[in-house]
Known about the structure:
The complex is a heteropentamer of chains A (388), B (308), C (235), D (238) and E (315). With 308 residues, chain B is mainly alpha-helical. Chain B has helices at 2-25, 27-53, 61-79, 83-109, 114-136, 165-183, 185-195, 197-202, 207-229, 241-254, 259-278, 286-304, and strands at 151-154, 157-160. Chain B has one domain. Chain D has 9 helices and 10 strands. In chain D, a hairpin with a 2-residue loop joins strand 9 and strand 10 (213-218). Classes of the chains: A alpha/beta (388), B mainly alpha (308), C alpha/beta (235), D alpha/beta (238), E mainly alpha (315). One magnesium ion (MG) is lined by residues 42-43, 85, 161 of chain D.
Amino acid sequence: KPIKIGAVNPLGDITGDQATKAMKLAVKEINDAGGVLGRPIELIVIDDEMNPAKGAAAIERLATVENVDFFVGGMGSGVHLAQVPILKKYQKITVWIGAASHQAEIAMGPDADWYFHLHPWDYQQGEGYGVGWTEIVHAYPNVKIEKVFLAYEEGAFGTDSYTSYIDLYEAAKRGEGSWKEILKEFKGASFKSASLGGGDYRAMLNQAKAFNPDLFIWAGYDADAIPIVAQAKEVNFQPPLFVGAPPGWPADFGKNPLSENVILYGMWAPTLNEVSPVAKHFYDAYVEMWKEEPATYFAPLGYTNIYFLVEGIKKAGSLDKNAIIEALRTIEYESPLGEVLKIEPSRIIKNQGFKYQKILQWQKGRQEVIWPLELATTQLVYPFKFGK
Amino acid sequence: MEKTNKSLKKTLIAFIIFLIVVGIWKPLALVYGIQRGGLYSLIGLPLALILGIVGILNLAHGDFLTLGLYIGYIFFNSWSIDPLISMAPLFFILFGLGMVIYSILIRRVLKAGHLNQLLLTFGISMIIIELIKIIWTTRPRSVYTSYASSSVTLGNMSIGMYEFIYPAMAIAVLVILQLFLKKTRLGQAASAVGQNPKGAEIVGINTNVVYLVVFSIAFGIIGVAASVMLPRTPVFPLSGNPYTLKSFALVAMAGLGNLNGILIGGITLGVAEAIVQSIPGYEGWSDVVFFGILIAVILLNAYRRPES
Amino acid sequence: MLEIRNLNVKYGKIQVIWDFSIDIKSGEAVGLFGPNGAGKTTLINAIIGLVKPESGKIIFENKSLVGLETHKIIRAGIAVVPQERELFPFMTVEENLRLGSAYIPVAKNRVEENLEFVFTIFPILKERRKQKAGTLSGGQQRMLAIGRGLMANPKFLILDEPSLGLQPSLVIELFQKLKEIKKTGMSIFLTEQNVKQGLKIIDRGYVIENGRIVMDDSSINLAKSEYIQKSYLGV
Amino acid sequence: MVILKTINLVKRFGGLAAVNGVDLDINENEILGIIGPNGAGKTTLVNLISGLIYPTQGEIVFDGINIESKPAYIRTKLGIARTFQLVRPIQGFTAFENIVVGALFGAKENLKQARDSASEICDILELKRRDFPIDKLTVLDLKKVEIGRALASKPKILFLDEVMAGLNSDETWQMIHLVKSLKKRGLTIVVIEHVMGVIKELTDRVIVLESGKIISQGLYENVCKDPKVISAYLGEED
Amino acid sequence: MKKTIFPIITILAIVLLIFLPYFIGAYLLHVLMTIFIYMTLALSWDMMLRTGQLSFGVAGFFGVGAYASIITCSRFGFNPLVSILFAGFFVALIALGLGFAVLKLRDIYFSITTLAITMVFSVIIRNIPKLTGGASGKVIPNVIFNGDSAKTYWLILSLALITILISEMFNRTKIHFAINSIRNDEIIARSSGINIFGYLLFVFIISSALQGIAGAIYTQQYGFVSPETTFSLDFLLLPMAMALVGGIYSTWGSVIGALVLGFASEYLKLIMPYGHLIIYGIMIVLIILFLPKGIYGTTKDKIITHKIEKKSLSE
Ligand SMILES: Nc1ncnc2c1ncn2[C@@H]1O[C@H](COP(=O)(O)OP(=O)(O)OP(=O)(O)O)[C@@H](O)[C@H]1O
Ligand SMILES: Nc1ncnc2c1ncn2[C@@H]1O[C@H](COP(=O)(O)OP(=O)(O)OP(=O)(O)O)[C@@H](O)[C@H]1O
Ligand SMILES: [Mg+2]
Ligand SMILES: [Mg+2]
């Protein structure tokens, strides 16, 4: 009799699609190796259609019709918020890889000890970059970061980044927090993302140009990536560090000459293969199984999602809920993201997985890891300049 | 008759004064506004043509634009054809697509009224978006051309030149469409068919051909719009989708059947948006201004319009 | 010129025209009379292809019209002045009239001359040439519809109750003009409730009731017939 | 007694004065005929009185109160009803339901009363296909529906704008009897027609409009001999 | 015979619906709840459509209702049920105010204006974060009835039944005659004594309030609001599709449409994880091509024509 895991992902979106494929890969590998507790694993996937009500109904179905033992899955915060009340109703062990919005954390509350959240929360990410940039400033003496400008898309994703940066800035002014050593001046401006019918960033870029930042970050979607650089070139705005923080990147960004030396925040890049055997194993197995390259970090996250859960079950040695929770809290899983995954509490919930994202840079069409320094695949190219 | 001429002149003068004032106050906003507004107009025109002139409601307007973008992308990606060159084949491909869509689908709901057209094209929109997702995934694609981000420097302003192609194309398309509607037999027939299809048949107009041609021309223009947008626009399944609403907004603002109004309205909205975006801290309100002006104009027109 | 044989027309399951046959020769004016709902308009719609007959033949100048699209029938030389007028309400009077000629091969080069002709019959239309058709009075719209029909230089003119809503003096004038036009060789097919005026210009007439011909005679005989006197010439 | 009165009524459309200073007195329980050339302003006059359009100038007094600025639906409730020159029944309703509408809102009846009065009116009008949807009716039926809806609002004054146009003589006679019977019930009726036989047969008094002005009025017999009327309107038969 | 059977069937159906939570599982119940919410939106949209006004404001009133409910709950401590009623009242008030401006508009001008108003609502809400949580939205700690499916189901069922009741009342009373006349010919309506603006405003307020309440309940069910999800145009487009697929201008059209499309989308997804939305789209296209008046409308039409033809043939 198989152990049933229920996954809810947006199959119509590349993130959900690849996360699902990676999950299937993990399940196949585990089953080929004899399963867990002597039982095979069965993965049941339902599309959430990026619609909150559908995502919630999917959980109900997995819980009552499919009778799964665990929930996994991820992506959109809006969908997840609608799932929270249902998840609370069943209180099954849930390992989630999406939903970065702190609202989800608030909704889940502190008591849900069966809930594991692997993706860093929005506020953790900003904090992590402070750590990263501080280390980079130390490692590269010519890099200077005092003035930071954040351009953020006006929806929840961008606005949440902005508010967390404001908090970090306030903390830095008081001499606290991860940015305290470097951040002196901070400014932000919003824009309408191309994915929501916007796509004209020039007013915002002119504001940024007038501010003359050392570090320019934009928090938007993959669709914004190319037009922002193109329009920055048009208004002749060349910050020394040009950073994009979308959840994914366009298909041919690397091929675009304007991408050279653009910095990105992310959790994973194919170049990690050079420094992490797990990453390489995952990459090769994924390409082998699906005949396509993993293009978003949700693919390795999906893989991690299953493995992490299964390791927990293995360690617990039974399907006892409390035992598994205890096990998941203590295991250390060497993930294809290049880091070891271990659980720590975050602001509200007890079981938070990854804390920080990585700092990477586009170089010759590849995403190279710059920070964490121990995972670095190459050196930072500084300052940023548009090619001719 | 004279009255409409007079009010047109008044609108035009007010419009030009508005542009001049903005130009002195915020020159960059004027540039960005004209460029954006030109794009709105260019995309709005084909919708105005099929909704305002022959009365077909197409909710999949923006999604056909998306389709155009993908086709342009294929030309670039597979055969390295510059989007401005693939404009010609794109016009004809979308023209052909328009013919097919009209002949097998739209034709059947012509008499059924706007609501059925609404639902039909909603279904079509859904099919297009989902098909694109399956073929190309949701990852954005794009086309790189060096000219698209070129600019000239004026004082401390760096002004992008490429996007002036939007208002230029909008004006060109508008002029050609007006000539077509006023000077060609087919164009005149289009207005007749829009007002009374049965009456049109009775004076010897082949209404079916008129619908087919107008619909296809509109699609051809969508293809042209897609090509000029392509160097500056990311291509993903929902690229064009938001333009459906904006185009409908423009048509309602200009008034059904008023093609010139699309250009004036488009640029007004573009400039108004650009002004708000240029005020630090208020960027997020630009949509309110867009829709606020839209609502104000529609209400004003309604109250000004004399009793029937 | 026009030959209809055993025509049957149905709306759904309800039959409106029963086994209808007539012949109209070139240059002839033929009237069609009958009570409301007899099927006159339906017959006209069948001729110009707006309704598809159930069975039967309609032949115009040796060409079958059945199954042909309306605009083709019109371009072949049949003009129609519909009972419901079918104008273009947001176009001016002049634009409406010009459209009457624009798509007809034989008429499109004679627009100006046709316009003048229409304006002599209905001077008010000339006065109102820039007014939108939708704002015309009922009678003025009728004039415009007739005018638009005449603009087509048809070989065969169908008028569905042309006098409806026209002032008495114009009715008289209209029928005089139709008489003159007829002399140029145009065939006319007319339905009319103003039978008295109608009879003045037609050569022959049919009376139909419930979709069937009940009478068929020359106009002189019809005028004399008791039945016509009683039912159609009373008021 | 004058039931409806207009004082110097003017309506301009752009440069055109469609109604141009009309002083009209309509007496209670009379049948008044209004004739005049096409475009003389007859329909416009009815539109002004029934409230579909508002006058450029002038007053309309009905039953002693000024109504020129009251909305149309109020005037209907006050007792002014009209038919339309181009029949406009409400699509999607049956003939019967069309008449119910008049009773419900014009006469402010409840649904049951309205159904009763509607079937009464159908009987009076001898409307047979009352359960048929509108698009399956003949012109005569439609005209009856038109009158029926107006009647159902229990008006004091009824304007009939070319209701006889397009009827054959049998049918016209039917209508004439109908209108006469309405007069007997105490209604004031204004008929607009281009069919002189009808005017002759029906009216107590005739008014002739031309270019928005009254050019002649009086008994039909006198008016139709007025040379102005003959040249502008009636024409001479050969 | 028919007269007595109909009420019995109705009562049986209602009883069955009420006791449904005891027979079916949480999943089906959840799907039904979503369908009932959409059914309410579809029906209320249709009510407005019956006056001839094609409203694109559904998502807007839905969203405002949702926000009104969440904000009164979290900031002013309203009981969730009270906050839902308040949301309905609040939206009705907004509709009243807006009605005076927009109900003079017709056709696409009305449609686009109501859509623009939806956008304005969402942008305003996004830009006043102090009250609304701004772009990031707002969550409440506890969902209504603490997530008890059955109770939530009964609440939503009541809303759907009330909407059906109102819709039927609209179809069986004077209002039916008024709004049908308005839709078909305003000039006739006016000169038949109908206060057009009055009726339009009345229907606008009622239908908007229902949409607001639907938004409030939906949001209480899940416990959060955000401009992106709460003002999603799905809440306009799907109800419209449902009403049109079922058949407009009738109660049962929207009911059937919501059930058919609601279950179809759920079922298609299960049998076809990828690309099911294409089939859904094709289904909509086919229905509109072959049943132009919708499932219910076309069937009803067939029956009526049949009856009339029989009558005429026998005449
Ligand atoms: N579209 C239609 N669908 C169903 N029945 C129709 C349709 N059009 C007309 N009829 C019916 O067909 C019959 C004939 O109508 P038609 O209009 O041809 O009569 P007519 O002789 O022209 O009368 P009128 O003097 O009223 O114009 C009538 O009974 C009418 O109700
Ligand atoms: N909205 C309008 N705009 C401009 N002119 C108009 C408008 N409505 C009516 N007219 C003009 O006003 C005049 C009066 O029209 P009205 O309809 O009252 O005439 P009528 O006497 O009823 O004529 P008929 O006998 O033809 O029905 C006409 O010349 C008409 O063209
Ligand atoms: Mg007829
Ligand atoms: Mg008139």
